[in-house]
Design brief:
heterodimer, A: 441 residues, alpha+beta, Naphthalene 1,2-dioxygenase Alpha Subunit, Chain A, domain 1, 2 domains, nine-stranded antiparallel sheet, B: 168 residues, binds FE2/S2 (inorganic) cluster
Chain lengths: 441, 168
Amino acid sequence: MLTPTHGYTQYDELIQEDPEFGFRINHHLYKDEEVFQEEMDRIFYKGWVYIGHETEIPNPNDFVARVMGQRPVILCRGEDNEIRVLENKCRHRGNTVCQEQRGNSKFFRCAYHGWIYSNTGGLAEMTHPSAYGERLPAEGELDLLEAPRIGVHRGFIFASLAAEGQPFEEYLGRAADYIDRYCDLAPDGEIDLSAGRHGVSYEGNWKMQMENLTDAYHAEFTHATALAAFAANSSAGKGKFSDRGDLEDEISTMRDLGGGHVVLDGFELNRAQGENLQFTGSTGTLTEEIVGKIAEREGSREKAVWLTHGGGSHITVFPNLMILWDAVRTIQPVSLHKTVIYYHPAQLKGASQEINTARIMAHQAGFGPAGFLAPDDMEMFERTQAGTISDTDPWVYLNRGLSTQRLEKDDFGVEAITSQYLGETTQRGVWRHYKKIMSGE
Amino acid sequence: MNKVATAESMDLRSEIENFLYREARLMDQHKFEEWEALWSDRAVYWVPCAHDSDPMTEVSLIYANRAGISLRLGRMKSKAMYAQDPRSICSRVVGNIEIYPRDDGGVDTYSTFNITEFKRRANITRQLTWSGHSEHQLSRHGDEWLMDYKKVTLINSDGEIPALGFLV
Ligand code: FES
Ligand SMILES: [Fe+2]
């Protein structure tokens, strides 16, 4: 089922750390087809990847079509209520069996020769089986292939196509704390990703987005027009950026949580702003409802306020899940030079429709193909990709904050490599882990 | 609906067609201020993401009132909106225009569009096509027509689409 590992690329030559030059990566990592194929194999087929959320398939027989690495799969809840990831590939001649993006169905029928699979993966009906004679495949032999491992944390569903490997809890590691804090912002302690999704494509390598979510450095420049527009939007009261700006820049921190998971932590910023902040992520007008409801749930207003302080953090869960403000984002590599980003607004269960509508509006003002922020990011990714053609000096140095970063306790009281917002600690954290995985360690 | 055309209805048709053609040209030419002046204060500008969606409970590509439109245009006017630096060169055809007069003197229209977008960057050029349909609600203010409502449905709105940085 898995592509063999070739081991052609020497990743320790492409990602280097040395006292002399610091930390550098080679931009062949963004433009070599061999690297891309090895990433598919080692990261997307052997490792854990985020695949979808329980609230996208809440009922038995619900399904959504997804792509894992480059392989079409079906994320479904069987009639037995079990969540599975099935390869979207008929076991007869290999046709894709599900063409819809989402739906509710007990069966997937391959149109080519009419084989029917149940949503638990089993081959329910083979047409004209007698033609096989003595070579009739045994029961179960031609079921849809299924991801052998599924891990679910707070509704976030991850899958691995490898039967063995790192246990799920170990993979998720410290990212779990930050996912928990995000979900705990919902009065019912759960988020809901059923409000649709944006799909934005760009002509560039998938890792551009992986590195960018926790690149605080670019915002002031790339997003100058968006920041100005949001600041001008006085009618929105405490809108997304209305009282941010320099403050965020000065006191946000970059944290490397290990395992390739990194965060641009907005905790200090939020704490500095007190209770009247954009704690739901970005819609600041409805503070009391949320704080009140969480305080009731937790039996502590202090705890509620603590939770809201995490609101603006940018979380990257290696390799393809990102959580920021009002939305959950996934990276979908399409090919070496093409990537799609999906944005799912995250609704807070137990919050009023007024709050959730405000979250949708705040999200779409910034993101999606016509938002104020995302198109400028995509533009930068395409320009970076265009620049990688020049090989005179293929090195990218990631030395910002290298000499000043330190081990520091985060708000959960756990030590993480930390630098202030202009540091490249988070990029180094992602690359260090990438190198480990790609070197087969 | 298959009424015999009268001189009066033909006049209305050419007025509305002219409005839609002019709007198309202003969008092609990135004439942000003139395009903004086509909106009434009741403005609702909606570009849905999924078909048949509810903008209050599902994500859209754009959902803006009058203030939101101004904010958007303010950003688009800047050279620092990098997704449009340099600006796309656009050419669009608006057609299949259906016009439905309302009792209050306004009109509802349905029309289709095809846009070709050309982008040039340092060492790359790209030519993209966009298509879909628009639904306008227009009302008469003195001797000019203004848009109260415009809904733009791209054929691939719920698909994976590149940055949409010009006006639709
Ligand atoms: S390919 Fe699916 S039934 Fe033949
Ligand atoms: Fe950005």
